[in-house]
Design brief:
The complex is a heterodimer of chains A (331) and B (268). Chain A is an alpha/beta fold and 331 residues long. Chain A has 11 helices and 14 strands. Chain A folds into 2 domains: 187 residues, Rossmann fold, CATH 3.40.50.300; 64 residues, 2-Layer Sandwich (Alpha-Beta Plaits). In chain A, the strands form 3 sheets. Chain A has a 6-stranded mixed β-sheet with strand order 6-7-8-3-9-10, with helices on both faces. In chain A, helix 4 crosses helix 5. The two termini of chain A are 38 Å apart. Chain B is mainly alpha-helical. Chain B has one domain. In chain B, 75% of the residues lie in helices and 0% in strands. Chain B has 11 helices and no strands. Chain B starts with a helix and ends in a 6-residue tail after the last helix. The chains are: A alpha/beta (331), B mainly alpha (268).
């Protein structure tokens, strides 16, 4: 698989802010360091949507800024399309950064004027600027709002304009830092659909998405990485990460005509009756099979209405990973 | 080169549109310029034309040329740091720095409109002085005048870039700018000749570049001095430019590199 984004042992520490008193009493003492990233390895395939998930202060934004050539790593390598981020002349044309900060535009200028200005910075040739701006305004559905001042835009429109700006030079890689942070649920849903259908599926953009939003990750991402205290703790598809640390598989069984205990090598998590149908949640250890149980029930005249596997919850998996990280910290 | 000029133009258009969006303030500034010239005119009537240091030039032309050019030259001093600080606070610096445009071009181009607006203000001040208050200007050596202005702007830009480096790295303080703006106005023969200062500090004025710049401008515009008579201040300005421009560029480069390493490039 081709990799659009790669990271090998990326490390970054920042100087601690010193208090005024400390500066006065120990003016020549070296400032302490705060580790933001402690050797992050990362690989995002071409055309993939990769979600970077982590609690506040995990290092997501630092990683995005390193990949966007805004911050230099202390150690390790970060590559975009095979080029090291230290060679920003080669890397910057390949990437677009979608800021979550609404202040990154000129509020007194219209949406179109903002895009025209940034098109120049992104080296779009003069004769192509108008066409490119028109096409992008149409793509993000802002044609009618284009002559209006940016300050008059809603949060959703501002975010869509930020995406249009990141696409001005048609980069193959997009870095998105919490793109739906300040949006209402309807706008978030619409933006997520746009990212998935338009940017990823249609335009084949590789997208690295940093977010806290688990729903966003579940609906958008092909794979996710969980960053905790500057270290990548888990990487995998959403179902893989959901199952992390789970030793049992859960099933929901709907059965009628059977009123006895189930028996067999299963653990009953819950058991309730609704309109004469028992809804039983079962936990099966390891690779244990349901066949003997279901076969036994059918043989004794029970009617099986449904038997579904229940996927573990991503939020719970996230909590398990954080808890294991805390355990590691304590030990 | 064409690409850089196109970017420079884009910055000019951006800031022009932004300034124009504050229409009332835009018009007020133009009106304010007329009043400033008027204030200088009536203030100068209190000044004894035989004051030492005026060199036979009537007080009003001496004052208005000094004040107008000082304002223009000061653009190069404060504009770099003010723009960088403004973009940091506004949140737009990061959006610009993530683009393929080099940071040095972003810093330099950000000031394009300030220089253009400063030149326009200079023209308006001088036009008010000439057409309303009857000042007689004669450019005997356009080359010497142009060279003097260019060298002053370049030298000031060098200091301005050093000042912007302070902003990029330390975020606040900007001691270079503060020290230079105040000392320049006080010792630079801007609003009064240095000869009216106490004798013990008059020598400071000899070391303030603004004194040399205004000497070129006043003698050229008001006394008809030619190239040959201006070689001394022009030579000093050339040496200063040769030192300050590389210093400013190196300072900015170091500051950007360090700020990127420390992750503070876009913090404020």
């Amino acid at each position: 698989m081709d990799h659009a984004i790669e990271g090998f042992g990326i490390e970054k520490s920042f100087k601690k802010k010193r208090s005024f008193r400390d500066m006065l009493t120990r003016p020549f003492a070296a400032a302490g360091q705060v580790r933001a990233l402690g050797g992050v390895d990362l690989s995002v395939g071409t055309g993939e949507i990769f979600g970077l998930l982590g609690p506040n202060g995990a290092g997501k934004t630092t990683l995005i800024k390193i990949l966007a050539c805004l911050v230099l790593p202390d150690a390790g390598r970060a590559l975009i399309g095979g080029d090291d981020v230290r060679h920003e002349n080669r890397v910057k044309p390949k990437l677009g950064l979608v800021h979550s900060d609404e202040r990154s535009f000129y509020w007194r200028l219209s949406g179109r004027e903002n895009l025209r200005f940034f098109a120049r910075l992104y080296n779009v040739p003069g004769r192509r600027i108008e066409g490119r701006v028109d096409a992008l305004l149409e793509k993000v559905d802002l044609v009618e709002a284009a002559p209006r001042r940016f300050s008059d835009y809603s949060s959703g429109m501002k975010q869509r304009l930020a995406i249009a700006r990141a696409l001005l030079h048609d980069p193959p890689v997009l870095l998105m830092d919490e793109p739906t942070r300040s949006l209402d649920p309807a706008s978030s849903r619409s933006l997520r659909a746009f990212i998935r259908d338009e940017l990823n599926r249609r335009d084949r953009k590789t997208i690295l998405l940093a977010t806290h939003n688990l729903q966003e990750v579940e609906t958008l991402c092909d794979r996710i990485g969980i960053l905790v205290r500057g270290t990548m703790r888990q990487v995998g598809t959403v179902p893989e990460v959901r199952r992390w640390g789970v030793t049992e598989r859960l099933f929901r069984l709907e059965v009628s005509g059977w009123h006895e205990p189930l028996g067999g090598e299963v653990r009953v998590v819950s058991d309730e009756s609704v309109d004469g149908v028992r809804r039983i949640t079962l936990a099966v250890e390891g690779e244990g099979r349901l066949n003997p149980l279901l076969g036994g029930l059918i043989a004794r005249g029970a009617v099986i209405h449904a038997c579904d596997r229940l996927e573990p919850d991503l939020e719970e998996a996230f909590a398990r990973i954080l808890a294991s990280e805390e355990d590691r910290g304590r030990s | 080169m064409t690409l850089i000029l196109a970017k420079l133009w884009a910055f000019m258009v951006r800031d022009f549109l932004s300034d124009l969006s504050y229409r009332f303030a835009f018009v007020l500034q133009l009106v304010g310029m007329f009043f400033m010239v008027a204030v200088l005119y009536f203030s100068s009537r209190m000044v004894n034309p035989l004051t030492p240091g005026l060199d036979g030039v009537p007080p009003f032309p001496w004052l208005v040329v000094g004040a107008a050019f000082q304002l223009y030259f000061a653009t190069a001093l404060y504009s770099f740091s003010a723009k960088i600080r403004g973009e940091q606070v506004q949140g737009t610096l990061e959006a610009m720095l993530v683009s393929p445009t080099p940071t040095s071009v972003v810093i330099f181009s950000s000031t394009a409109w300030d220089f253009a607006w400063g030149a326009l203000r200079l023209v308006v001040y001088l036009a008010c002085a000439v057409f309303i208050f009857g000042v007689h200007l004669h450019v005997s050596s356009p080359a010497a005048l142009g060279l003097g202005i260019a060298l002053t702007l370049l030298a000031s830009a060098g200091i301005g870039m050093l000042s912007a480096s302070f902003i990029l790295y330390f975020k606040r303080g900007d001691p270079v700018n503060f020290l230079l703006t105040t000392s320049t106005t006080f010792f630079g023969n801007v609003l009064f000749p240095s000869k009216v200062l106490p004798a013990s500090v008059q020598w400071v004025s000899e070391w303030v570049p603004m004194s040399w710049s205004l000497q070129v401008v006043r003698r050229s515009l008001l006394q008809g001095a030619g190239f040959a008579e201006l070689t001394d201040p022009l030579g000093r300005l050339a040496v200063l430019t040769a030192v300050l421009v590389p210093l400013g560029l190196v300072g900015a480069r170091i500051a950007i590199r360090r700020a990127k390493r420390e992750g503070s490039l876009i913090q404020y």
